[in-house]
């Protein structure tokens, strides 16, 4: 049967605020002293250079971007406006799934992304488009639910150009209630 997840549309914003804040907080320890890759320094370099070089050499651009966004979301004056609000939305999304499962659904079947798979490297120039591909999976992560995503071909076993926009599979996910991985 069809279900309603009324707060799912807010999932992307909440997820990327919570995820970047947690990345920022958790990856702060990777300073090249106790944790993470330690950069080679020159004689005149100090502790600040060690931190900067170790993090820039040891963490990729996407990780660095998430750390910066998370640091901003957790900064003074923005914590309540961004991070705290995202935590409230996360709770609402979790409650939406709990309502579905308590109403008798054993599992939820839904797409994994808004469209078929895209070719490797196709959307790398548009990070926002890549983030928006996660719209159907971020709620599961925010709610802490078990899920599996599998590629699915249309009936007949092969994807035609009209079926998925170029013969690529579509993703389908199966979501279970909390602590019901089996």
Can you characterise this structure?
By secondary structure, the protein is mainly alpha-helical. The protein is 46% helix and 9% strand. The protein is built from seven helices and three strands. A three-stranded antiparallel beta sheet has the order 1-3-2, with no helix packed on it. Helix 1 packs across helix 3 and helix 1 packs across helix 4. It is globular and about 65 Å long.
Q: How would you name the oligomeric state of the polypeptide chains in this document? A: single chain
Q: Summarize model confidence as the mean pLDDT.
A: 82
Q: Unreliable stretches, pLDDT < 50, 5 or more residues?
A: 159-163
Helix proportion: 40-55%
**What value does the Rg take, in angstroms?**
20 Å
The rounded distance between the terminal residues' Cα atoms is 22 Å
Number of helices: 7
Q: Mind summarizing the main beta sheet?
A: 3 strands, antiparallel
Give, in order, the helices and strands. Answer: HHHHEHHEHE
Strand runs, count: 3
Shape: globular
Structural classification: mainly alpha
How much beta, percentage-wise? 5-15%
> Strand order, biggest sheet?
1-3-2
